[in-house]
Amino acid sequence: MINHHELDIRLRDLKVELAHATLVAVSKYSPIEDVIEAYKCGQIDFGENRVSELKTKADIFQEKNFSNVRWHFIGVLQTNKVKDLLKTPNLWAIHSVSSKKIVEELIKRESEFTGIELKLFFQFNTSHEAEKTGFETIEELQESIELIRSLKNSKLKLFGLMTMGAIRTDNVLTDAVKCFQKLKIIRALLVKNYNLELKLSMGMSGDYKEALEEGADFVRIGSLIFK
Ligand SMILES: *Cc1c(COP(=O)(O)O)cnc(C)c1O
Q1: Which of 89, 101, 164, 215 has its Cβ near the most Cβ atoms within 10 Å?
Q2: In the chain, domain spans
Q3: How far apart are CA 85 and CA 189, in angstroms?
């Protein structure tokens, strides 16, 4: 099991470094015991990339009445998993809304969600790598944004944009910065077109410092915390 004291120090140091940005502790490779330790250190935001694993952990947290927790779904989302995802207790945000099809399914299944508001980050594939999901064009993205904005009395809230740095490159950090800058440009365009506010979810263990420099509001860090 993870050492509570070391975990506490790592989380504290990260929080100082992150300042106003929110730390999403990615617990996808961690056993539930380690996630509970992190919660006991005061960490409340956790990210998971598989619906079934998220559901299992979220159910355990609910049984223990750890009700401050805020679950973030960060993985590839398939339409047939949307219903189960929405049923997850204390689901706070989905960072990986990646197509109009997914948006339509979220709208169709909205009544499964038991919370007050579900924050949606639209994922943009800034590196255009084939293995990544996400919107590929501004037009597609705008179409889905307009769809969400047309809803009345919906719990689905357009909250931000998400991206990941390029992986197939020899210059990982330089190219990550380019991806983050692209996302910022897209945000500026959307803010201008729709007069709205959008948070940025970008940066992982290897590139969160660069993401913070570029103005990330949410960073998703796994291996650095739960090593
Ligand atoms: C796994 C994962 C992370 C965290 O990755 P680390 O390198 O372990 O920090 C962040 N975002 C997404 C979408 C992930 O799948």
Answers
A1: 164
A2: 4-221
A3: 30
